[in-house]
Structure formats: C-alpha cells, structure tokens
Amino acid sequence: MELVLLGYDYDGMTTEERMKSVSEENVAKVEILESSGMGLGWQVKAFFGVPMFLVYSVLIYIMRFFLRKLRLAP
What we know:
Radius of gyration: 23 Å
Number of strands: 0
Strand content: under 5%
Helix content: 55-70%
Number of domains: 2
Shape: rod-shaped
Largest sheet: none
C-alpha cells in the first residue's frame, strides 16, 4: 500500500516503468521497500514459516525429553 502512495506502478513490466511516477526524493525509500521482502504476501510467509516453527518446536521437545530421561536414569 505504501508503495502505491509513493507512486510505484505494480503493472509495469520493467523497473523503469514501475518507477516512472515515483518522485526523486522517494526513489531510495521505494527501492528499500521493494527489496525488503514486501513482494511476498503474509500468506506465503505463513505457509512456509509455520511448518518450520512446528519442526523446530518438535525437535526442542524431543531433545528436552531425552535430556530429562538421561538425568533421571541411575
């Protein structure tokens, strides 16, 4: 949304077409926003992020389970 307010044109095929109506003082800000991963929607980030988080959580749970078993074993 912010890119559109700054004059960015999503329908442009080249970088020049997308940046043609962006004012000179906003070019640097638009370039930062464009390359900051804002192109992916939150749904795609969540689609890949949630499974990675779940795998991490399961691995931590398993490690804690075995560490407790080792500590309690005589």
